[in-house]
UniProtKB/TrEMBL annotation:
Pfam families the record matches: DUF3485, Exosortase_EpsH
Transmembrane segments: 25-44, 56-77, 89-109, 115-142, 198-217, 224-244, 264-285
Domain Methanolan biosynthesis EpsI as annotated: residue spans: 323-508
Coiled coil, from the record: none
Topology relative to the membrane: Multi-pass membrane protein
GO CC terms of this entry: plasma membrane
GO biological process terms on file: proteolysis
Main localization, broad class: membrane
Domain of life, per lineage: Bacteria
Keywords: Cell membrane, Hydrolase, Membrane, Protease, Transmembrane, Transmembrane helix
Lineage, opening ranks: Bacteria, Pseudomonadati, Pseudomonadota, Alphaproteobacteria, Sphingomonadales
Protein name: EpsI family protein
Region Disordered, residue ranges: 407-431
GO molecular function: peptidase activity
Length: 524
């Protein structure tokens, strides 16, 4: 007993006894991190806001704790690695800053946030050297989970969950029909909404899987297999959960089944799936209990690290170079943010041959969102055949934070509007087409088109690339968003109405230019 206590005390003392070289290196690292956190505080504030306020990313609040634990597992072996300033890491840091600048110019927050995290990672080899960075390789890589990601996969996960659910419903002998993400059964109409897509479960499972794969396995094939299981299992499990809700609702009703579903999914189901995955992987764990997390001898014996570590720097060069590059990146982005193209004081929806303006009176109120737009127009056109088409137009003098035409929640499907995404429709090169549904049920088709300079597209990515080119070259150009939409039913086919209106409009690009009162003829 006494010997055991002494051994424990010795290990503890060795863990906290930081060598002089490491003390100086950690001080430099703290200064570098403090400088970067101050300069790029907006990105860290935005990430922290998502960690705290979005249930999809609540698990990220544990990531800093996990990283600290991973580092502690490497002590005191880590102290035996040499520490030095490594000049080539300035190039790595410069690449991260360039990525941040490009993300800021493109207006993609996820890129700037990823770059902000990568900067902290790049500071480790810069301030501590390549061998120390090698010893911290996995904790550094795990910092990538600080970046909120996953929302992009929501539509795909909705469709996959709906398909799994309806297949299981049919197997369980319950009559059902599927229409996009809507499933109709005798108990009522069910929607696989964004909150039911399973994205929360999937992104949390990825973070958990990466940690377990590293801690429990040594063989890369076993790690890959375990990670594949952590991707497939939550997707399938979410489909089973959704099926359970639909099946139970046939007997107890939708309201009761929905309430039970959230309790079970939040407190029981998630933990059960994790336990099942661990149980499946348990027999394949190949890391010895108490095995070292850092192979110091292997790191010291690597020839490539020996060749690299000779390129040292001074603290003044490292910190000075970091500050200069960071301020240049911020200055470039700030100059682009100040670009605002002139917009007319007033715009109107134009006349369209064979069509006339009528009162806007949708069966279920529909109004697209265009946050930060300088002008918004919403009106309804009708023709002699009784077809009706709704037209929404937004004009922006610039694109940036709070004013992105292709941003999340912008356009035809604003959040909490009563409308839900139902399914994709065949799109064209200049329009992104989708079918929406509201309670009633009321369905409508919406075709979204963006315009900037000579670019007319239905792709949000293509628009962002056009905006990026303008900001990169410091050009002032307006951005436009046009949404043509028509209600389905009530004696009208939405597709036919939209096709007739499109034909009467002529080319979309010049039509949008006339509304915005700009001349893009030389750019087309």
């Amino acid at each position: 007993m006494v010997g055991g206590e002494a051994d424990s005390l010795t290990i503890s003392t060795q863990s906290v006894a930081v060598p002089e070289a490491w003390r100086a290196g950690l001080l430099r690292l703290a200064l570098a991190w403090g400088l970067l956190l101050a300069i790029f505080h907006a990105d860290w504030q935005a990430m922290a806001h998502q960690w705290w306020d979005s249930s999809t990313y609540h698990h990220i609040l544990l990531v800093p704790v996990i990283i600290g634990w991973l580092v502690s597992q490497r002590l005191p072996a880590l102290w035996s690695l040499p520490v030095s300033l490594w000049r080539p890491a300035l190039a790595l840091l410069g690449a991260c800053l360039l990525l941040w600048a490009l993300g800021a110019l493109a207006g993609v927050a996820q890129v700037t946030q990823a770059a902000a995290v990568a900067m902290l990672m790049a500071c480790v080899p810069l301030m501590l050297g390549v061998r120390a960075a090698a010893g911290l390789a996995f904790p550094l890589a795990y910092m990538g989970f600080l970046v909120p990601f996953g929302d992009e996969a929501v539509p795909l996960l909705q469709m996959v969950t709906a398909r799994i659910t309806v297949a299981l419903v049919h197997i369980s002998a319950v009559p059902a029909q599927i229409d996009g993400v809507f499933i109709s059964t005798p108990a009522g109409l069910f929607e696989v909404a964004e909150a039911c897509s399973g994205v929360k479960f999937l992104v949390a499972m990825l973070a958990f899987g990466a940690l377990a794969a590293h801690v429990c396995f040594l063989d890369w094939r076993r790690r890959a297999g375990f990670m594949a299981l952590c991707v497939v299992a939550p997707v399938l499990a979410n489909g089973v959960r959704a099926w359970g809700t639909v099946y139970v609702a046939q007997y107890v009703g939708r309201a009761v089944a929905g309430g039970v579903d959230h309790i079970i999914y939040g407190w029981v189901f998630f933990a059960s799936v994790i336990a099942g995955i661990l149980a499946l992987g348990w027999r394949y764990f190949d890391r010895p209990v108490g095995g070292a997390m850092v192979d110091v001898d292997a790191i010291m014996a690597r020839p490539v690290l020996a060749r690299w570590e000779g390129k040292s720097s001074s603290p003044r060069q490292a910190l000075g170079g970091l500050a200069v590059m960071a301020l240049l990146a911020q200055g470039w982005a700030l100059a682009a943010d100040r670009l605002v193209a002139p917009v007319p004081a007033h715009i109107d929806l134009p006349e369209v041959a064979g069509w006339h303006r009528v009162d806007y009176s949708p069966r279920h109120w529909w109004e697209p969102r265009a946050g930060g737009a300088d002008h918004r127009l919403l009106g309804r056109y009708a023709n002699a055949q009784g077809q009706q088409v709704d037209v929404f137009f937004a004009l922006y003098g610039a694109q940036g934070v709070g004013r992105k035409a292709s941003g999340f929640g912008e356009g035809a499907l604003p959040p909490e509007s009563g409308w839900s995404w139902q399914s994709p429709e065949p799109s064209t090169p200049d329009s992104h087409v989708e079918r929406l549904q509201a309670d009633g049920p009321v369905e409508r088709i919406a075709a979204t088109t963006y315009r900037s300079g000579g670019v007319t597209t239905g792709s949000g990515l293509r628009l962002r690339m056009a905006n990026f080119a303008d900001r990169l070259l410091l050009r002032r150009r307006v951005t436009m968003m046009l949404i043509l939409s028509a209600e389905d039913g009530e004696g009208q086919q939405a597709k036919a109405a939209l096709a007739a209106f499109r034909e009467a409009m002529g080319p979309l690009g010049p039509w949008m230019d006339r509304v915005a009162q700009v001349d893009n003829t030389q750019k087309d």
